[in-house]
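Regression check, zinc ion case 355:
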Amino acid sequence: MVPTAPASSGEPLVLGIETSCDETGVALVRGRELLVDTVASSMDEHARYGGIIPEVASRAHLEAMIPTLERTLGTADVDLSEVDAIAVTAGPGLVGPLTIGASAAKALALALGKPLYGVNHVIGHAAVDELVHGAFPERVMALVVSGGHSSLLLVDDVATSVTELGSTLDDAAGEAFDKVGRLLGLPYPGGPHIDRLAREGDPTAIRFPRGLTARKDQEKHAYDFSFSGLKTAVARWVEARQDAGEEIPVHDVAASFAESVADVLTAKTIAACERHGVSTLVVGGGFSANSQLRDMAAERCAEAGIELRIPPIRYCTDNGAMIAALGSAVVRAGVAPSSLDIGVDSSMPLTVTHV
Ligand code: KG4
Ligand code: ZN
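Current build output:
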């Protein structure tokens, strides 16, 4: 029989485990209060390959899991027996890394006799904001942008009711930044470097294309994103200057490229808020560190009368708190726990909050 979380305690203590990519995250959340969040990253091991190597990430998760768990419990001065429920990322993400986290969570659930909740990583990026800015109002829009995802979600209930309005058809926003970074000769990941260069460039210097904003795309892809055409346009522009023996104005290229990404992300998101009568926007995912996106979102939300909620950056990058936060919401919603034989799903649909 699957054990259930205490029904009447109101504020169960949830342990969250995240391993979908290169961060091993373990956190403890009670209700909407974050007690401790511990993250170990294997990014340094991937940097020299210019991308995440799943096998390297899996091994790093395996090595980091128990020390990260012990550090979390020790910092919170909590004994494992006090944990009421265990939440773990069930997808989307890399299969090997996800499997390490899910195996650890299942072992803990079985050994402790506590309920297991397999939850959605992308929705976790939105849910974590409840730990920072408090309970969500009835309906929020969530823009989740990182190296792996660019998704627009209409959240009626973060635990049980999420609608995917749109997603990227090709590259995620961070991925596009990393690819343009590579072609400009910047170290991996290129995103933060482009951000820095862009701050000193002219965003109007070059008019790069705005993906999926043409009239013909308005119907089918109103809230979808596409950044691969933009990336190609930047590559062509740079190559043409190189072929002509001209110097590349990297600051202006970075600024004009970043402007295109921020423009499309914010324009589509605000249009979606207006269309659905939503007055609160949550932005999450590692790419929300991007200054061009932050500035434009702040400006356009203020103009449109939309409250903008962006958690501090450590809660935007992958972490255990986001999984514990969503797990906690799912427990509060009284949802039945996951079976101990759940599998991981690398392409888990964004409408599935938990499995
Ligand atoms: O959420 P995250 O840490 O990992 C993924 O799940 O992908 O996001 C990392 C991504 C990388 O593509 C990185 O280049 C990008 O976000 N990124 C940025 C900035 N900081 C991180 N891109 C642009 N500007 C930034 N300031
Ligand atoms: Zn993520």
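Comparison notes: Residues 4-8 have pLDDT under 50 and may be disordered. Residues 138-309 form a domain with the Nucleotidyltransferase; domain 5 fold (CATH 3.30.420.40). No diff flagged against the previous build.
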